[in-house]
C-alpha cells in the first residue's frame, strides 16, 4: 500500500528559505521592502518618546498593560487634559499624568493637540510675553487649556477663551527647552 506524504513540510521549508533570502537582501532590492513591512511594535508611531498629547474623550480607562484584557487601574475623566506618552506598544500608549499616575490606553483615546494644566497657585495670563504686560486673566490650579506656541520661557495659551502668554513654569505640559510652533 502506498504511503501518502504531505508536501506541506517541504513547502514550508522552501518558503522559509526564500523569505530568509529576501529578508537578508540576497535577492537584490527586496531586503529593505521586507524590513519596512515588519514594524517595531515598541515604537509603532515613529514619533518621539516621551512626548505630550491630550486626552481626546471625557473618560479614559488606564490599564496595567497594553491590551483591553488587562485590569483597569485608573480612570481619567478630563477631556483635553495633557498627558505624557512614555512608552508605546502597537496601538497602545503608556501615559503619565502630572501627578505621576501611569497606565496604558488605546491610541484612539488620545489627541496630538497640545494642552496645559495650571499647577501650583493661581497664575496670571499676560497680554504679551513679558511679566510687566497687562494681565488678561487669572487661572486657578487644575484648570486645563490649550497650548499654541512657545518662545524660550514664554508660551502662548488659550484658557477658556482667554488667549495670552504664560511662563512655562506656571503650567504642566511642555519640556523645559521644547520649541513649539
Walk me through the structure.
InterPro entries: DUF1058 (IPR010466). The protein has three domains: 31 residues; 72 residues, Roll (SH3 type barrels), CATH 2.30.30.40; 57 residues, Roll (SH3 type barrels). The longest helix has 17 residues. It is elongated, with a radius of gyration of 25 Å. The chain is mainly β. Helix content is 13%, strand content 38%. Strands 6-5-4-1-7 form a five-stranded antiparallel sheet, with no helix packed on it. The N and C termini lie far apart (78 Å). It has two helices and 14 strands.
Question: Key terms for this structure?
Answer:
SH3 type barrels; 3 domains; 5-stranded antiparallel β-sheet; mainly beta
Brief sketch in words of this structure:
With 181 residues, the chain is mainly β. The chain has helices at 8-24, 31-37, and strands at residues 51-55, 60-63, 72-76, 82-89, 92-96, 102-106, 110-111, 115-118, 123-126, 135-139, 144-151, 154-159, 162-167, 171-172.
Amino acid at each position: 500500500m502506498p504511503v501518502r506524504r504531505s508536501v506541506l513540510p517541504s513547502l514550508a521549508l522552501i518558503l522559509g528559505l526564500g523569505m530568509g533570502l529576501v529578508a537578508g537582501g540576497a535577492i537584490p532590492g527586496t531586503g529593505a521592502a521586507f524590513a519596512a513591512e515588519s514594524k517595531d511594535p515598541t515604537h509603532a508611531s515613529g514619533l518621539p518618546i516621551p512626548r505630550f498629547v491630550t486626552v481626546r474623550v471625557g473618560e479614559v480607562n488606564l490599564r496595567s498593560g497594553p491590551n483591553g484584557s488587562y485590569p483597569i487601574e485608573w480612570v481619567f475623566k478630563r477631556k483635553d487634559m495633557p498627558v505624557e506618552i512614555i512608552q508605546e506598544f502597537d496601538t497602545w500608549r503608556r501615559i503619565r499624568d502630572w501627578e505621576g499616575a501611569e497606565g496604558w490606553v488605546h491610541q484612539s483615546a488620545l489627541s496630538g493637540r497640545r494642552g496645559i494644566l495650571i499647577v501650583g497657585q493661581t497664575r496670571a495670563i499676560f497680554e504679551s510675553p513679558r511679566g510687566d504686560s497687562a494681565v488678561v486673566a487669572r487661572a486657578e490650579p487644575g484648570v486645563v487649556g490649550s497650548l499654541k506656541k512657545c518662545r524660550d520661557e514664554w508660551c502662548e495659551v488659550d484658557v477658556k477663551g482667554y488667549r495670552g502668554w504664560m511662563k512655562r513654569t506656571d503650567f504642566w505640559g511642555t519640556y523645559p527647552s521644547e520649541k513649539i510652533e
